[in-house]
Design brief:
Layout: H1 3-16, E1 20-22, E2 34-36, H2 38-57, E3 62-64, H3 74-78, H4 81-84, E4 86-91, E5 98-100, H5 101-127, H6 133-139, H7 141-162, H8 166-175, E6 192-195, E7 199-201, E8 211-213, H9 219-223, H10 226-232, E9 239-248, E10 263-273, H11 278-294, E11 303-307, E12 317-325, E13 328-339, H12 341-350, E14 356-358, E15 363-365, E16 368-375, H13 376-387, E17 388-394, E18 400-406, E19 417-421, H14 428-439, E20 445-447, H15 453-463, E21 467-471, H16 473-478, E22 480-485, E23 491-495, H17 499-507, H18 509-513
The structure holds adenosine-5'-triphosphate (ATP).
Length: about 525
C-alpha cells in the first residue's frame, strides 16, 4: 500500500468510526473545517490532558490560563499580525487554483531531495556493506549538482521572503520551471501578500473602529496576562504559562485533511526567562518536547528537528519538531525563542509597564520568552496515521482474515475497556454490567452484547480499544474473566477483582508521564 493510499484509507476510517467528520457535511461541507465525532473527541481530550499535565503538573514553575478568543484589536497591531501575518500567494491562470508561493518552491526542493535519496539508495544496493553514505553524498557528481541547485534556490527564497521581494519569488518559480499540479501549465499571476486573520465586528455598529479578529494564535492571550499571573501566582523567573485553545487562520491552501485547518487548536507554553539566558532554555525545551513526543512510543525514527533558516519577525532562534506523516516529514510543533519582542511591543502599544523585578539581581527588565507551540489536531493526525494498521490473520482452518486495528497508545485510546458477556443469557449480561459499574468510575468503558465475540473484537480493534474483557460461564463459577489484548490478540484469564489494578497500570496517563 502506498502512503497516499494509506492516507485515503485513514480519512475514510476516521469518518466511518466516528473520529472526524467534515463540517456541515449535509450542506456539502465547509472547506478545511472539521468536526470531531464520538471517538475523536475522546482521543483529542486525552491528548490535550497528556500535554496539559506534562506541562503544568510535572513543572512546578508552569501554570495554566484560559484566555478569550477575542482580544483588543491593538493586540494584533502590537504582535505584528496586522502588518505582517501574510502568506505570499500565486494563482495559476489556467486552473484558477491558488497556491502559497513558498510552498510551491518547497515542494520543488522536496522533489530534488527525493532524486538525491533515490541516487543514494541505488548506490547503497550496488555497493552493499562497503557503502559509505556520507562519502557518497560528498563526492558523487549528480548528488552534488542537485544539492547545489537546492542550496541556491533555498538561499534565493529566504532572501526574497525576508526582503518581501515578491517579484523575485515569482522569478524563482519561473526559473525552476514549476508547473501547476492541476493544469500542468506555467501560466502564473504575480505573487501577492494575503493576510491570514479572520475579522468580524464587535457590537451593533459596523464601522472600521469595531473590527476585531479571531485570534490566529493563542500566545498573545498569555503575553497580555503575564504580569497578572506573575503577581497573583507569585511566580519567579524562570516560569511558564500554558494554554490550550482555538486559533483561526484563513489558510490559502488548506489540504491534507486536519493537517491544515482554518479553525484549529493549539497547545502553547510561553516560558519567561532572564535576557541572555534564552538560548539555554531554548535548547532545554527542544529536548524536553522531543522526549514528550517519543514517550508515546510511536517510533523515534519518525521524528526529527528542522532548524528555521528564515526566522519570523519576533524570533532569534526557531526549530520545528517534524513527524513523518504519510505525506512526508512535516511540522507538528514549533519551539521559538521570541526574545522580548512581544512584551516590549505590548508595553509600547498599551503604555503599561510590563517589566519584571528580579529579586535575585535587584533589576527590572522585560523578560525574554521561549515558546513551545504544538497543534492539537496535528498531534491527533500523527497518532492516528501511525496507529492505523491493516493485518492479515491466518485462522485455525488455514483461511485468511483481515483486520484494521488502531494501535493508539493505550493511555490515549478513546475507549479503554470493552466489556462483553459471551452470550445474552444465563445471567452473563448482569454479571458483565456489575463489572462495568464497578470499573466505569476509573476507566472509559463500553458495554457490548450484540454479534459474535469475533465481530465485537473487530469493532473495538477499529477504534483502538486496547483491552476487551469477556465474561463467560466460568465467570459465574470462579469470578475470573478473559482479557484480550488488542495488539497481540493474546488472551489471559484473570480474577475480575484484579482488573482495576491491572488496568490502572496499563492505561493511566501517569504511566506515559513517567516516561518523559
Ligand atoms: P505551517 O508552517 O505549517 O503553516 P506555522 O509555522 O505557521 O505552521 P505556528 O504558527 O508555529 O505554525 O503554529 C504552531 C503549531 O500550530 C504548528 O506547529 C501546527 O502544529 C499548528 N498549526 C498551525 N497552523 C495550523 C493549521 N492551519 N491547522 C492545524 N494546525 C496548525
Amino acid at each position: 500500500m502506498t502512503q497516499e493510499e494509506l492516507f485515503k484509507k485513514l480519512i475514510a476510517h476516521c469518518k466511518e468510526y466516528g473520529f472526524v467528520f467534515q463540517s456541515s457535511e449535509i450542506y456539502d461541507g465547509l472547506s478545511a473545517v472539521y468536526d470531531y465525532g464520538q471517538n475523536g473527541v475522546e482521543l483529542k481530550n486525552n491528548i490535550r490532558r497528556y500535554w496539559w499535565e506534562a506541562m503544568t503538573r510535572l513543572n512546578e514553575n508552569i501554570v495554566g490560563i484560559d484566555a478569550a478568543i477575542f482580544m483588543h484589536p491593538q493586540t494584533w497591531v502590537a504582535s505584528g499580525h496586522v502588518g505582517a501575518f501574510n502568506d505570499p500567494l500565486i494563482d495559476n491562470k489556467d486552473s484558477k487554483k491558488r497556491y502559497r508561493a513558498d510552498v510551491l518552491i518547497e515542494d520543488w526542493i522536496a522533489k530534488i531531495e527525493d532524486k538525491i535519496n533515490k541516487e543514494v539508495e541505488k548506490a547503497a544496493k550496488r555497493f552493499g556493506d562497503s557503502f559509505d553514505e556520507t562519502m557518497f553524498r560528498q563526492t558523487n557528481p549528480r548528488v552534488l549538482e542537485n544539492q547545489a541547485k537546492i542550496d541556491e534556490v533555498n538561499k534565493r527564497m529566504v532572501a526574497a521572503l525576508e526582503a518581501n521581494e515578491l517579484a523575485e519569488v515569482k522569478k524563482i518559480i519561473e526559473d525552476c520551471e514549476i508547473t501547476c499540479p492541476i493544469s500542468g501549465s506555467r501560466n502564473w499571476t504575480d505573487v501577492r501578500q494575503f493576510n491570514l486573520m479572520f475579522d468580524t465586528k464587535l457590537g451593533s455598529v459596523t464601522d472600521e473602529a469595531n473590527t476585531i479578529y479571531l485570534r490566529p494564535e493563542t500566545a498573545q492571550g498569555i503575553f497580555v496576562n503575564y504580569l497578572n499571573v506573575q503577581k497573583t501566582g507569585r511566580m519567579k523567573i524562570p516560569f511558564g504559562i500554558a494554554q490550550v485553545g482555538k486559533a483561526f487562520r484563513n489558510e490559502i491552501v488548506a489540504r491534507q485533511f486536519i493537517f491544515r485547518m482554518r479553525e484549529f487548536e493549539q497547545m502553547e507554553m510561553q516560558f519567561f526567562v532572564r535576557p541572555g539566558e534564552e538560548m539555554k532554555w531554548y535548547e532545554f525545551w527542544m529536548e524536553k518536547r522531543m522526549r514528550w513526543h517519543k514517550s508515546m512510543g510511536l517510533g523515534d525514527e519518525k521524528y526529527r528537528f528542522h532548524k528555521h533558516e528564515k526566522l519570523a519577525h519576533y524570533a532569534n532562534a526557531a526549530s520545528d519538531i517534524e513527524f513523518k506523516f504519510p505525506f512526508g516529514f512535516k511540522e507538528v510543533e514549533g519551539i521559538h525563542s521570541r526574545t522580548d519582542f512581544d512584551l516590549s511591543s505590548h508595553q509600547k502599544h498599551s503604555g503599561k509597564k510590563l517589566q519584571y523585578f528580579d529579586p535575585e539581581t535587584n533589576e527590572s527588565y522585560v523578560p525574554y520568552v521561549v515558546e513551545t507551540s504544538i497543534g492539537l489536531d496535528r498531534t491527533f493526525l500523527l497518532i492516528l496515521s501511525s496507529a492505523y494498521t491493516e493485518e492479515k490473520l491466518t485462522k485455525e482452518d488455514g483461511s485468511v482474515d483481515e483486520r484494521v486495528v488502531l494501535k493508539i497508545p493505550a493511555a490515549l485510546a478513546p475507549v479503554k475497556l470493552a466489556i462483553f458477556p459471551l452470550v445474552k443469557k444465563d445471567g452473563l449480561p448482569e454479571m458483565a454490567r456489575k463489572i462495568m459499574d464497578d470499573l466505569k468510575f476509573d476507566f472509559a468503558c463500553q458495554y457490548e452484547e450484540k454479534d459474535t465475540i469475533g465481530k465485537r473484537y473487530r469493532r473495538h480493534d477499529a477504534i483502538g480499544t486496547p483491552f476487551c474483557i469477556t465474561i463467560d460461564h466460568q465467570t459465574l463459577e470462579d469470578e475470573t474473566v478473559t482479557i484480550r489484548y488488542r495488539d497481540t490478540m493474546e488472551q489471559e484469564r484473570v480474577p475480575a477483582s484484579k482488573l482495576r489494578e491491572i488496568m490502572a497500570e496499563k492505561v493511566s496517563i501517569s504511566s506515559l508521564l513517567k516516561q518523559i
